[in-house]
Amino acid sequence: MDKILIIGAGGQLGAELTLALAKVYGDEHVIATDIKNGDHTAAFARFEVLDVMDAERLAALVDENKITQIYHLAAILSATGEKNPKLAWKLNMDGLINVLDVAKEKQLDKIFWPSSIAVFGPTTPADLTPQHTIMDPNTIYGISKLAGERWCEYYFQKYNVDVRSLRYPGLIGYKSPPGGGTTDYAVDIFFKARTGDAYTCFLNKDSYLPMMYMPDAIRATIDLMEAEKSHIKVRSSYNVSAMSFSPEEIASAIQQIIPTFKITYEPDFRQAIADSWPNAIDDQEAKRDWGWRPQYNLDSMTADILHHLK
Ligand code: AKB
């Protein structure tokens, strides 16, 4: 019987993925953890405080709850990482290695760990970035994700740890706030639009980035984890793609529904991060290996979010 531990369940992705996994596997089979308790954790049927840097507590929780799968989501994202690079490196790397070690020692069935489009860098082909290409990230977050991908493949090849991963684009949801990323503008903009405020965007109007609506991200994650082991051919991390747009284009999609919405542009340090990432990525291997298909584009996502934020 599957028993799932989620690390970083209070984050933007974790909050929604935990509830989705509880629907699939049942409340009793999903144990949410985060570094601290708070309002955001009240929605979970089962919750434990866990700092992923504490390998002993992690192992104890795995034993006590007879865990078979871990979703390790805790990380410091791109913008926050640049403010404290050494802390970002330590948390992003040591946390992953603790999880891979516990999976190896206790022979867990499966591990999920998110990578990101941040693994690509300034000399990576920016349009329809292939699965296998130049990777020269220049943010500490991207460097840690690229190193993490190599650790995942290493543990799979050397120790047969069944670790699976997606290179998420910017994730857009309206249920939980994002935490310190460069793509966060595409979430913040909806809240401003709904309260009738103008939005000052921290990226230039024509900065294209790959993005994905949260329901697609949740489905991609669960589909990848439920796929037959023999179908998973990429053991670093899969490119997954849904849509690409610029701040000007998302503002215009919002204006179709809220014509009075206004946006201005004041790029800050996050512009350089966005400039180093692809415009759009090629996900044909995810489509071929485990049947990935996105369902939302910019217009259908915008309509859905603004409808729910009413
Ligand atoms: C970020 O902006 O740092 C993240 C990401 C693309 O991984 N949303």
Give an overview in words.
The structure is a single chain. The chain has 310 residues and is an alpha/beta fold. It folds into 2 domains: 4-169 and 212-239, NAD(P)-binding Rossmann-like Domain (Rossmann fold, 3-Layer(aba) Sandwich); 172-211 and 242-281 and 296-309, UDP-galactose 4-epimerase, domain 1 (Alpha-Beta Complex). It has helices spanning 12-25, 55-64, 78-83, 85-105, 140-159, 185-195, 214-226, 247-257, 270-275, 284-290, 298-309; strands spanning 4-7, 30-34, 47-49, 69-72, 110-112, 115-116, 163-164, 166-168, 170-172, 199-201, 209-213, 238-239, 243-245, 263-265. The strands form 4 sheets. A 6-stranded parallel β-sheet has the order 3-2-1-4-5-7, with helices on both faces. The chain has a 3-stranded parallel β-sheet with strand order 6-8-12. It has a 3-stranded mixed β-sheet with strand order 9-11-13. α1 (12-25) links the parallel β1 and β2 (30-34). α6 (185-195) crosses α11 (298-309). The longest helix is centred in the N-terminal third of the chain and has 21 residues, at 85-105. It starts with a strand and ends with a helix. It binds 2-amino-3-ketobutyric acid (AKB). 2-amino-3-ketobutyric acid (AKB) binds next to loops.
Q: Estimate percent helicity.
A: 40-55%
What's the domain count? 2
Strand order of the largest sheet: 3-2-1-4-5-7
Beta-strand percentage? 5-15%
Shape: globular
Q: Mind telling me the CATH class of the largest domain?
A: Alpha Beta
For the CA atoms, what is the radius of gyration? 19 Å
CATH superfamily of the largest domain: NAD(P)-binding Rossmann-like Domain
State the distance separating the first and last CA atoms. 40 Å
Low-confidence spans: pLDDT under 50, at least 5 residues?
none
